[in-house]
Design goal:
Blueprint: E1 3-9, H1 17-30, E2 35-41, H2 53-56, E3 60-61, E4 67-68, H3 71-79, E5 88-90, H4 91-104, H5 114-128, E6 137-142, H6 152-164, E7 170-177, E8 180-181, E9 186-187, H7 190-201, E10 208-213, H8 219-229, E11 236-240, H9 248-255, H10 257-264, H11 276-286, E12 290-298, H12 308-320, E13 323-331, H13 340-344, E14 349-352, H14 361-373, E15 378-381, H15 383-395, E16 403-404, E17 414-418, E18 433-441, H16 446-451, E19 455-462, E20 464-466, H17 471-476, E21 480-484, E22 491-495, E23 502-505, H18 520-540, H19 542-548
Parallel strand pairs: 1-6, 1-7, 2-5, 2-6, 7-10, 10-11, 12-13, 12-14, 14-15, 15-23, 16-17
Antiparallel strand pairs: 3-4, 8-9, 17-20, 18-19, 18-21, 21-22, 22-23
Helix pairs in contact: 1-3, 1-9, 4-5, 5-6, 11-12, 12-18, 14-15, 18-19
Length: about 550
């Protein structure tokens, strides 16, 4: 039987429950246990797929096509194992299931209530992964903050599971904040006390308290927290701010979080944690030998979480290249023909990010043109790939009105068009082309060099595609469709062989990058940016040029 760990949060949101859950999972996995993580979100949306990135950050997509919370990206990046449809559940999905069952008569005419019907469905979902027999431990992160009205059914479900399960099969880890008042030069424990008290009033008592803090917690402070929150002193864990999220597992290892959990769950005979690869990655991350500057051209740059997986992919690829990747955000709405050189001339590489809608697309097209004409390493993802196709159609093939029907429905040259299976769809939620699809890569291309194989699988999230009516025109003009879906013929990858590094992909490669397996396009893109920077520096400095020769 699987054992269950529930991670709750108090005082404020954005404390890092997902990182703590992923770090604990990593430590338990490193000891030889089979671990997975799931996220329960209290909002009423069925999934994050229809949420604006400004509202919720990026929408993370799994292999089986689930549109999920971005924390699932952290889970995969830490554990190097895929999540699934069962790994993210919202209040909306819970109520949708219960209401559908009520309409079908499944409750035999009984009055449907939050308790037991909603909480029973929550519990069923919480236990679902554990019943598969694939895992020793299921870690469940509860979104939101203890005390939120919308979180109450989830907390109640945890209370019931604590009551129903043997004591050694279920535990609660509560993440809270110990604020530092600079005026008083003092750490304050009262918010944590109130948070734990609020949780206890709902019938759930934490077994471990993890304290986010900017300053170290001394033993007296830990004893005080333990006394007033009714836990043992060794169950009060210090979670200091770290320079990288990937340091957190080692910080938790130092604090003994995994040992406390193993003792509570009565798991014996566990091995010492095997973290050799993780430590090697951190060593490369902390001590890079070179540096590159990459421009991220997007329209949601005000919120870093909107491009979370892209940013983390650069961390992984940078470490692989022993290179510090500095990402410069450039809002696509601010780019014009007049200022593009000023904004992009100091970059070593250019990534045009995914997105939806007309806002900012002309700036993206202008940025692509600059990269193409100046041999600047270029990487386009989803909409970024589509912008590269439109730019090439306009400025190389000479079709000034080349566009996507997403932007201009009646354009004379719809080089990007709505997918056939999308044309009759009116509902927005969960109806895009979602999840992993195969792609066949043409030998001898840049894509083939990058992947080292002709058959790959990558995750998708889109409605529009390269219009194959124009494929011959683009091929004659020098743009190569180097990757296609073997069943539909959908163009997955385009590239320019005469350019040092120019590639656009319809899928989202950033969704599969992990610490142990950095995404290969990102790795080669950073490598190309390094070569571009070295060549430019050599031109500026003749001594460097002679050394390169």
């Amino acid at each position: 039987m699987a054992k269950y760990i529930f991670v709750t949060g108090g005082v404020t949101s954005s404390l890092g429950k997902g990182i703590i859950a992923a770090s604990l999972a990593k430590l338990l996995q490193a000891r030889g246990l089979k671990v997975t993580i799931q996220k329960f979100d209290p909002y009423i949306n069925v999934d994050p797929g229809t949420l604006n990135p400004y509202e919720h950050g990026e929408c993370f997509v799994t292999d089986d096509g689930a549109e999920t919370d971005l924390d699932l990206g952290h889970y995969e990046r830490f554990l190097n194992t895929p999540t699934s449809q069962a790994s993210n559940v919202t209040t909306g999905r819970i109520y949708q299931t219960v209401i559908n069952k009520e309409r079908e008569g499944a409750y035999l005419g009984k009055t449907v209530q939050v308790i037991p019907h909603i909480t029973d469905e929550i519990k069923r979902r919480m236990l679902l992964l554990g019943k598969s027999g694939k895992f020793d431990i299921i870690i469940t992160e509860l979104g939101g903050t203890v005390g939120d009205i919308e979180s109450l059914p989830f907390v109640e479900a945890v209370r019931q599971l604590q009551w129903e399960m043997p004591e050694e099969d279920c535990m609660v880890v509560h993440l809270t904040l110990i604020p530092y008042l600079s005026a008083a030069k003092e750490l304050k424990t009262k918010p944590t006390q109130h948070s734990v008290r609020l949780l206890s009033q709902e019938g759930v008592h934490p077994d471990v308290i993890v304290c986010r803090t900017e300053q170290p917690l001394n033993s007296d402070l830990k004893k005080k927290i333990a006394l007033f929150c009714n836990v043992k002193p060794d169950a009060v864990i210090e979670a200091m701010d770290a320079s990288s999220i990937y340091e957190v597992p080692l910080l938790m290892l130092q604090e003994g979080l995994d040992i406390i959990v193993l003792k509570k769950l009565q798991i014996n005979g566990y091995a010492a944690p095997e973290l050799t690869k993780w430590k090697a990655f951190l060593d490369k991350l902390k001590y890079p030998k070179t540096k590159v500057t990459i421009g991220l051209i997007g329209k949601y740059i005000e919120l870093q979480d909107a491009y979370k997986s892209i940013l983390e992919s650069f961390v992984h690829a940078g470490a692989m290249n022993e290179c510090k990747v500095k990402v410069i955000d450039v809002h696509s709405e601010t780019i014009t023909e007049d200022n593009v050189a000023e904004k992009l001339s100091k970059l070593d590489g250019l990534l045009v990010a995914p997105g939806f809608g007309n806002r900012g697309v002309e700036g993206k097209i202008t940025a692509v043109k600059y990269a193409r004409e100046n041999n600047l390493p270029f990487f386009g993802i989803c909409l970024g790939m589509q912008m590269a196709v439109i730019e090439y159609g306009r400025n190389v093939l000479g079709w000034a009105d080349a566009n996507s029907t997403e932007m201009v429905k009646d354009t004379a040259h719809p080089v990007i068009d709505l997918m056939d299976e999308q044309k009759d769809i009116t509902a927005k939620g969960g109806t895009m082309r979602l999840g992993a699809y195969p792609c066949t890569i043409k030998e001898g291309t840049l894509a083939h060099t990058i992947y080292g194989t002709t058959e790959i699988s990558e995750r998708h999230r889109h409605r529009w595609e390269f219009n194959n009516k124009y494929i011959t025109d683009f091929e004659k003009a020098g743009m190569v469709p180097s990757g296609k879906n073997p069943a539909s013929g959908l163009v997955e990858i385009v590239e320019l062989p005469k350019h040092p590094f120019f590639i656009g992909v319809q899928y989202h490669p950033e969704l599969k990058s992990t610490v142990e397996n950095p995404q290969p396009i990102f790795v080669h893109f950073v490598k190309a940016a390094k070569a571009f920077a070295e060549k430019r520096d050599a031109v500026k400095n003749p001594l460097l040029q002679s050394e390169m020769i």
